[in-house]
Design a protein that fits this description.
binds zinc ion, Metallo-beta-lactamase, Chain A, seven-stranded mixed beta sheet, globular, 16 strands
Length: 242
Amino acid sequence: MAKLTMLGVGHSEAIAHWNNNALITANGRRLLIDAGYTIKFALRDQGLTLADIDSIFITHVHADHCFGLERFAYECRFRYGTRPRLLLPPGVYEELWEHTLKGVMGQVGEGPATLADYFEVERLAGGDFEFEGVQLSYFQNCHTPDKPSYGLMMNGHLLFSGDTRAIPDIVTRLQPRTILHDCTLSPWNPVHASLSELREQYTVEQCQRMWLMSYEDHWQDHEQAVAEVFAGFARQGQAFDL
Ligand SMILES: [Zn+2]
């Protein structure tokens, strides 16, 4: 049985939880959804190391979603001798390599290096891809304006929103049975969905299928109110069947 495990559920400022990264496990192989700067700790908590990851999908280029790639690159190349697949949806490659990683990874002991020296880079197009029998579709969500940022639909029934504000049109069109949705506990945020925005933008029934993720440290202050409207706060280590 394929499953999605939340390796972390924290907002970028959170220290109570690791970065909001997830792991798909299918046929004994592992696809990471984002690799933030806490990824080694998050994998350790699941009894895993960087060497146990076969593929990595990056939803967008923010530190809590991609800074862990520097560790993957160096440790897989120089310690483990592995070269994970790196799956990049449209527009992410340029931000990731040219504007982010090249400064720390573009030069090594042997001389100049490219992203392909560390990873088997696959630049995705067309919206659909597959991992060990799990059907995945990526879609542009509503995060930082004019920045590539994606959510994922998994096996036609689980929607992982990525970092985003409310995306009711997409959720209504895709009709997921289970939703993992970004939320912030602040009253308003220009690039994340507040609790009131979620309640206003989604139907009661959609909220009931919705697990909240990417939240701040004081989540317990809202636990009761959230349980009355939503499925609840997704917890670190929680797994969902795919
Ligand atoms: Zn973000």
